[in-house]
């Protein structure tokens, strides 16, 4: 079986699919990951074959240029009390975000489609913004499997698909590409996921943080309760360091008898003017290895951070700015496995009080229950068997292999 995995040029969107790519290769299948050329190092660094398709395209640079042109910072929009207005607000946010994903896909499309027509994959796997995936699935009439990052907040884009992918699809004589795919793989525990009536197939979340070296200090048990603090990489890449609140969290917890382990990029270290004595680490560290040693995780609400905390059974405080982070924060709060604070208006005492609450038994119990849900889901290896049956059933029904 030949499988084409499609993503755009944001590494955090590739990483949730990497374990499935490994499982496909371990089962003996051919795999190629297609993306914009600047993603090739991240793909080959994950041990997967890469196809850099099209001219250079840098989504972060496009966004930085657009934000500078508009002098705009994407602080969260307060939803209208009018349901119709609130729905339109949500639609416009999706169109803006997926418009960029469609532009990245248009840059890839000519090379990616030409490759697919020669290579003839049996199956496409794509993440929700890897729109060249469903395009190829439609053109070659093969199953297109959507692999979620976490919560399925992107599914409603099918309602206004043509507004988003019209320019991408038109050169190929189609008007729709099926942006939600044939099957959706869902790594989020049921209590975290949206109950919207959509059918999703479970897959176990396997944390992958990129190529890492395990640091010796992580091997020794913490001498005091350890609080992990992380803020991902996207905000810094977008030029929004004012939203990286890890320094605020460190300052708020400096007086506590705890260990603070701060997982930030080298570029983010400059944001810390003063490092308190209870900080035991400040810099890059594989989040999964860190979270497994923590009593609490404080994060900005990215999909990887949220699920990595949960797969380790760790309660978390989500301090959210961007719309997807707000979505994650609300779902974590409602699941009982953590708390959520808005990043725009927050005090040090808010942070301190929320973290202290997370040491209560109810939060660890809820986080442990969500961990059990994740671990009960089929492994990527088991999901590959399902995908083999999906392709085999189509061949048996007379579809081309």
List the helices and strands and how they pair.
Layout lengths: L1 E5 L4 H4 L3 H9 L3 E6 L4 H6 L4 E3 L6 H12 L12 H37 L3 E4 L5 H9 L3 E4 L13 H9 L13 E4 L14 E2 L23 E5 L3 H5 L7 H8 L5 E5 L15 E5 L3 H5 L4 E4 L3 H9 L4 E5 L2 H13 L2 E5 L5 H10 L3 H16 L3 H17 L5
Helix pairs in contact: 2-15, 5-6, 5-7, 9-13
What's the number of extended β-strand segments?
13
Shape assignment: globular
CATH architecture of the largest domain: 3-Layer(aba) Sandwich
Class per helix and strand makeup: alpha/beta
Order of helices and strands: EHHEHEHHEHEHEEEHHEEHEHEHEHHH
Radius of gyration: 21 Å
Number of domains: 2
Low-confidence stretches: none
Order of strands in the sheet with most strands: 3-2-1-4-5-6-7
Strand coverage percent: 5-15%
Q: What is the CATH class name of the largest domain?
A: Alpha Beta
Mean pLDDT: 91
